């Protein structure tokens, strides 16, 4: 399982709309998930050890970011025929087990992952109120194991800054994780 690193933030890049099914039976698009001060789009999955290491922190940060007017959505774009742990049914189980405070949606065609240029799980895209990209970095210093509890909350701090100023930090450390599992053919 080779680690993949995200590219640098393309400041100002506009969020691409989508219409994806959530594990709660509803459909979601940009308008339904954005907050008044921004949006965090996360590409995650169930099987990746990098995601597993930070799921509780993602939940914590997204709950707190709601108070700053930041919406959030988690998109699963892996091919579940190759990775059964990432099936829609298992997505629903994980969302319930960790009490996700955001929609968890399935990008079956992988078109959304391609449109965003997502490369790994987790891959975080932090947008301002105008849905302009301001953050493309890591959650914190976690890798396949969670970083110490007192690790700097880089994603959270960046999104709070974006909520308050509309601008993300210039210095960002790329996220690292398992590559997106693309369909063959």
Question: How would you describe this protein?
Answer:
The model has no long low-confidence stretch (mean pLDDT 96). β4, α2 and β5 form a beta-alpha-beta unit. The protein is built from 5 helices and 10 strands; from the N terminus they run βββαβαβαβαβββαβ. It has a single domain (3-179), classed as 3-Layer(aba) Sandwich (Glutaredoxin). α2 runs parallel beside α5 (154-165). The two termini are 21 Å apart. The chain is globular and about 40 Å long. It is of the alpha+beta class and 185 residues long. It has a 5-stranded mixed β-sheet with strand order 6-5-4-8-9. The longest helix is centred in the N-terminal third of the chain and has 18 residues, at 49-66. 27% of the residues lie in helices and 20% in strands. GO terms for molecular function: antioxidant activity; oxidoreductase activity. InterPro entries: AhpC/TSA, PRX-like1, Thioredoxin-like_sf, Thioredoxin_domain. This is Thioredoxin family protein.
Q: What are the key terms here?
A:
27% helix, 185 residues, three-stranded antiparallel β-sheet, single chain, alpha+beta, 20% strand, 10 strands
In summary, what is this structure?
It comes from Pelomicrobium methylotrophicum. With 185 residues, this protein is an alpha+beta fold.
SSE map:
Blueprint: E1 3-5, E2 20-21, E3 27-28, H1 30-33, E4 38-43, H2 49-66, E5 70-76, H3 88-97, E6 104-106, H4 111-116, E7 120-121, E8 123-127, E9 133-135, H5 154-165, E10 176-179
Helix pairs in contact: 2-5
């Amino acid at each position: 399982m080779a680690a993949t690193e995200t590219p640098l933030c393309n400041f100002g890049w506009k969020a691409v709309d989508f219409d994806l099914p959530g594990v709660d039976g509803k459909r979601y698009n940009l308008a339904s998930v954005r907050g008044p001060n921004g949006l965090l789009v996360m590409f995650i999955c169930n099987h990746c050890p990098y995601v597993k290491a930070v799921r509780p922190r993602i939940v914590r940060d997204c709950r707190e970011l709601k108070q700053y007017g930041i919406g959030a959505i988690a998109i699963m774009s892996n091919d579940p025929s190759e990775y059964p742990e990432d099936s829609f049914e298992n997505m629903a189980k994980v969302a319930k087990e960790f009490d996700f405070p955001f929609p968890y949606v399935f990008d079956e065609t992988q078109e959304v992952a391609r449109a965003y240029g997502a490369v790994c799980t987790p891959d975080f895209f932090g947008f301002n109120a105008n849905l302009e990209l301001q953050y493309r970095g890591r959650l914190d210093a976690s890798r396949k194991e969670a970083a110490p509890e007192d690790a700097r909350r880089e994603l959270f701090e960046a999104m709070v800054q974006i909520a308050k100023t509309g601008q993300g930090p210039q210095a960002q450390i790329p996220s690292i994780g398992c590559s997106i599992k693309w369909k063959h053919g």
